[in-house]
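Q: I have three molecules that I believe assemble together. Could you output structure tokens for the complex as a whole instead of separate predictions?
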Amino acid sequence: MTTTNRRSGDRVRWWTYALLALAVFACVFPLYWMFVVATTDTAAATELPPEIVPGGNFFHLAELVFTTVPFVQSIVNSLVVAATIGAGQAVLCALAGFAFAKLRFRGRNVLLLVVVLTMTVPTELAIVPRYMIISWLEWTDTLQALIVPGLANAFGIFWMRQHISSAISDEILQAARIDGATVWQIFWRVVFPLVRPAAFVLGLLGFVTAWNDFLWPFVVLKSPEMYTVQIAIKALQNSFAIDLGLAMSGSFLATLPLIVLFVFVGRRMVAGIMDGAFKG
Amino acid sequence: MTTISPARATITPPPAPAAPRRRLTDILAPYAYIAPFFAIFAVFGLIPLLFTFYVALFDWNPIGDHVFIGWDNFTRLFGDVRFWNAVRNTISIWFLSNVPQLAFALLLAHLLNHVRLRFAVFFRMSMLVPYITSVAATAIVFSQIFDRDYGLLNWLIGLFGFEHIDFVQSVWGSHVLIAVMVTWRWTGYTTLLYLASLQAVPRGIYEAAAVDGAGTWRQFLHITIPSLRPVIVFTIVTSTIYGLQIFTEPLLVSRTTLNTCGAVRQCQTLTLFLYEQGFGQFEFGYASAIGVALFLMVVVFAGINFYLSTRIRPGRP
Amino acid sequence: MVAAVGSALAVLAMSGCSGSSGGTPSESAAGKSFEFWSFTGINQKADVAKYKEKRPDVEVKLTEVGGATETAQALTTALAGGKVPDLVLIQGDNLPKFVQQPQNFVDLRTLGADKMKSDYLDWVISQSVAKDGSIIGIPTDVGGMAVAYRTDLFKEAGLPTDRDEVSKLWPTWDAFIETGKKYTAATGKAFIDNAGTGIFYQAVNQVSQKYYDPAGNPVYDKNPEVKAAFDLGLKAVAAKITARQASFSDAWSAGIKKGDFAVIAAPSWMLGQLKDNAPDTKGKWDLAKIPGGAGNWGGSYLAIPKRAKNPKAAWEYISSTQSPQGQLQHFTEAGSLPTTPSVYKDPKLTSVKEPFFNDAPIGTIYTDSLLGLKPFLIGPDSAVMGQEFLNAITNVEQGKGDPAKAWDAALTAIRTAIGG
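A: Yes, here they are, computed for all three components at once.
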């Protein structure tokens, strides 16, 4: 983060803070409201004027969430899926990014173009045949049905390619080659340590995306013990009647792990998103 | 969300490492490194896509017969009011969620890009909170806030003596509701992308402008916007691809009218229409034809964007 | 690559046709465990728990997939390829599409359904009989019909509260709407939750033929009985007696808790819904007869997919729980009405009283509503037709549609949907 490039000069006007505070309120309020409703019961949630302070019902509702759907199991499932996808993407994209950035091989440009084009393929539209493939592999109702397709990330390959191009000089690679290291060794000893922060952010973004994915798990998963957290929330809203407090409580509990994660690594996430961005 | 423009990723081959002797494994290595991506994409991206084109030519009952009918699905589709309704809704929701998002992100990036701003990290982090909240949870919360009889927002509207607004039931209301969710989710993320771009603008330019007597507003118009142009084009590209496939929000916003998002399909998007025909009506062939139409739409949109992003040169000083 | 894609497509096309082969059940699990998909909101867990008491050696893996329609959708996906359950509950409206493709299900005659067939209401079981004569589902319950009303709110509005007197208020639907007007005028509150399911769905299920004639030809657009039911819905909208809350929505269940409307159309399976939704209103409800007398809304069937790994265990469950005595016992516990007329006169059934509904004799109320019933044919597109009629009424109710054009709008929507 350089500060040399910011708008210079004059003091920050008070309305700048006012507007930013408003934006922060807009970003955070829905989560706060989720918590408020999660601590009252539905009748209270529909009282007007509404309650705006949390009630004392949170643990009662949380307990209901845990008894209505296998919530602990679904948190574990989501963790397994999201962590595997995050870590897998970080490594696979770094490898592919390294190949595209630093290695010469026949068809490289064409293949890179193909990677670009894959980004424009809307995955949702082929959900029916995708489901058939999964069933042909006998993967329905398994976590690998979520993990394996989630490992391919064209955007991540670009991201890593760009980082490796700018962070690693050819001289270093050259020196390693002269020392007789194989390409594989060069990647693990020289390249990966240097781009680890970027790979970490990429993994984080992959983690968040996988954690919040809805449509694909919704189609693939059937057994309660396989649910991810998002599907568990959906299951909380049974079709006939919904207890709003219960749904909000589930939503809040499903978001909580990410909030905790965010408190610890949010700074790096912000920095990473900004760092991977366009540099004009 | 990509962060570099594909179009500008022209490749300058690095000098080949002068290897004393090239091992076969080293020659094959790059292929091995990119193989996982291509293998996974082939199985879960490409084959399903090709298969979609194939199924679209059939009257394909997933639990019954498959009858080859050629282009019939497409002729039916182009005469189907529900299809054009879904196209209209998709484009309308895309527009409503992107214009405000762009405007807010520009404004916020401009505000955050101040050298003496305090609590900068806190502000930036808060902006990302919606991004880590899942769509399912977002839909539940916003549906409550926007509810006709018991919603927080309508309570406020009522306080001012106005009639409660039935968001989900009206065309505009439901589009606005979904657009609000999308905007809420992505504005912060986009802001950070813009902010990063802004910070790459040399300070001297602003200083020179200030010396010439340009105020904040003119600096914003003549320096901020032009220097952000590439990233703006880029966010439009990605949000197009994302926006054309919007599914979860409309699915969850109106749960009682399963898969149609309301009594008169007022917010049924293309993907939701596809899902309804495929998994609701058992018409895999027709659903696949919708998929093909959606694919072509994305290709056309992405193509236009691709063309634009190669035409517009970054305002690099 | 091309060859690989080609062969993969071929494999897919085949798996699309036939699905992966069933595979042989593992020795240990055979007959000792089975997978069961049901829907939420009908307390299926209790049934399964009861069965386990009887058969502690059997493991039942119950999944509540979602709503009735979602469950049918999940079943379709599973049948199209993937792991199928051994036993699945299918709601009556979703059944015809499956009956048209009987090759996806075990013909229950092979397991002994022939012998049981006569136990069930003829018009109910006949809906699960395919063209080739195979029986793909055993009926678990029928709706029956009644009106649930809040005695405390009726009292406030100056209306009678005794169930017989209340039933006398509305011999016809027109009288029902008039009563609603009185209630709304007296209290300023809505009388019924909505016009679509509250009135149209009830009235249209009391007809002699619905959307298809007995020969199976669609008559949704020219059947005067359907039109009459539709007009009743519009009439209720015009009378402004509805709360305009879609059944089963979040706001609807909040409305029940808060007493925002006094009346809900209540087929027998709705009783459990009300109890779950608003436990605090216990004792404030009572049940009156439905206007127009006999009718049925809802009911479900248990089926066994062809590729099920444990069809025997699933069949044992069906034959044990869906016998006349099994259904009777289920009724006394959960309130959904048996499909086995032999128990309708059983004192165990006629004496059932429901404390939540002010000790209403639910056994007699619901069986009476079925006995005069003239069954009608449900066709493959009945569900879609009903939904589109409902949508048209809802659209007027929400102030978006023109009542004069609603009927034509519904017909157009149906034609588009069924490709006719």
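A: One point stands out. The CA atoms of residues 83 and 226 of chain B lie 38 Å apart.
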